[in-house]
């Protein structure tokens, strides 16, 4: 085990620090990689053009706030990456599989098992396989294409229509929106019909889903009722 180097990164500084210390305690040489937007690690982060090791660990759950920073990290530090995540198998995996992730493991993996995987990678073996890798990458690109199309539709809305859609996404009902905007429910319903027409959908649920898809966020509530 002596002499094996592994790069470590995580979306939370404390998590990265803890993981680095645990792996180092097993006799591996650990180099922390900087994560966008987190405080600098107590140890000096690697600033080279490539990862300082042929194997690397990324610990994070994949969501709107983490996927793009994770992709930039993998592009900045090419290596054989192991992703530790509790994110269910899906397009999000594909976002990183195409950029150097060679295996995906649950974040609750035991330290002994993780070290074994690192040792296998260092020996030139492939200890973790991801079935359907190409399909996951394709699903990621499909999801991004849908987001781009949704964003284009949203740009056709007026400022007021966008506000109405945002309020629907937050879980407010038509009467609540009318009261908030000092207008009548019939006026709000007219505005909602305009939103649906411009977005090419037939329900409030579908309109909010389009907003969520475009911005990669979770809605506060969906009532799904038609105006």
From TrEMBL:
Span of domain HTH luxR-type: 150-215
Annotated PROSITE patterns: HTH_LUXR_2 (PS50043)
Query: Carries keyword Nucleotide-binding?
Result: no
CDD domains membership: LuxR_C_like
Q: Does the keyword Phosphoprotein apply?
A: no
Gene3D superfamilies in the record, alphabetically?
3.40.50.2300
Question: Which keywords describe this protein according to UniProt?
Answer: DNA-binding, Transcription, Transcription regulation
Enumerate the InterPro entries for this protein: Sig_transdc_resp-reg_C-effctor, Tscrpt_reg_LuxR_C
Q: List the SUPFAM superfamilies hit by this protein, alphabetically.
A: C-terminal effector domain of the bipartite response regulators
- What PANTHER family does the database record attribute to this sequence? DNA-BINDING TRANSCRIPTIONAL ACTIVATOR DEVR_DOSR (PTHR44688:SF16)
Q: Under what name is this protein listed?
A: LuxR C-terminal-related transcriptional regulator
Q: Which organism is it from?
A: Nocardioides vastitatis
């Amino acid at each position: 085990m002596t002499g094996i180097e592994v790069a470590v990164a995580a979306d939370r500084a404390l998590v990265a620090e803890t993981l680095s210390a645990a792996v180092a305690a097993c006799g591996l040489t650990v180099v922390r990689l900087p994560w966008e937007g987190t405080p600098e690690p107590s140890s000096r982060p690697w600033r080279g053009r490539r990862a300082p090791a042929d194997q690397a660990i990324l610990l994070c759950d994949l969501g709107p706030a983490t996927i793009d920073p994770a992709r930039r990290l993998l592009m900045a530090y090419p290596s054989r990456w192991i992703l530790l995540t509790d994110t269910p198998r899906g397009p999000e995996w594909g976002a990183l599989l195409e950029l150097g992730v060679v295996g995906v493991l649950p974040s609750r993996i035991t330290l002994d098992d993780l070290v074994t995987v690192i040792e296998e990678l260092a020996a030139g073996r492939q200890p973790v396989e991801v079935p359907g890798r190409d399909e996951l990458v394709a699903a990621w690109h499909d999801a991004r294409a849908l987001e781009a199309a949704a964003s284009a539709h949203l740009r056709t809305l007026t400022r007021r229509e966008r506000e109405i859609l945002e309020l629907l996404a937050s879980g407010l009902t038509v009467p609540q929106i009318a009261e908030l905007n000092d207008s009548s429910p019939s006026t709000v319903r007219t505005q909602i019909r305009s939103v649906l027409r411009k977005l090419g959908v037939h329900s409030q649920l579908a309109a909010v889903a389009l907003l969520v898809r475009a911005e990669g966020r979770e809605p506060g509530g969906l009532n799904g009722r038609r105006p």
